[in-house]
Design a protein that fits this description.
The protein is an alpha/beta fold. It is built from eight helices and nine strands.
Amino acid sequence: MVDGQLIDDAVALVRRRWTVSPQMGIILGTGLGELVEDIQVEEIFDFGEIPGFTPATATGHRGRLVCGRLGDRPVVALDGRLHRYEGHDASQITRGVRLLRQLGAGGLIVSNASGGVNPELLPGDLLVMESHINLMFLQARCPGQGVASDMAGTDRPGRWRTSPYHRPWIETAMATAAAGGFRATTGTYVAMTGPNYETRAEYRMVRCIGGDVVGMSTVPEVTVASQLGMKVLGLSAVTNVSDPEQQEGASAEAVVEMARSVQPAMRAIVTAIVAGESHSDSSQ
């Protein structure tokens, strides 16, 4: 169980410097690292010093594990993520989720930047994920397990949920966005491997199969979180909207800059979700 040992070693490293059990795990995607500013930081680990992790190389991903508090609630955040197009397999990509769960996080808020294919969207909109379509076709190898459970990185394949996104959190996210005057909608995220941006034909395909936005991450992490019994909220910053007939393409720098414009909405939602969980915990 090589991967299991790596997780145990990673937990031991964190516990030597931070002994708190976090309530929530957060994954910060492209251009969204400034959300860390809301966390009262108590400890930071670079990915390179955590067993089984490697430094993040994607634009806008700092590659750090940030431990601290949001309000009065303990949280732990992955400030950046690993992607398939960086050469990582699903086991490596999702190792951070397993670490968050082993540290004690019962919920996961995952964020990303995406390109819109729904013509009703605008750059700078927030999409609250209510479903996804997996076109990444990743498999990870965990010793002693079959293909069905490899993708999940767990020995409980029966716990996979066909609706992994937590409906009460979706409703809270939409209500928070409305109260703050932010443009937000619910929809479906389509995950492709990348690193290239999609062709005109691929944008048409994504729309035809029911996608509202397309990106290059998130689905493997949500899959594992769901298998591990975590509640999940997915937030996607819409950085550009495709017109397949007039498509000009997008640059990584432009994507990061537009993703940053969505941070106020995401910060409000993350704060509301964590505060809401705090209230529900105290009332039990």
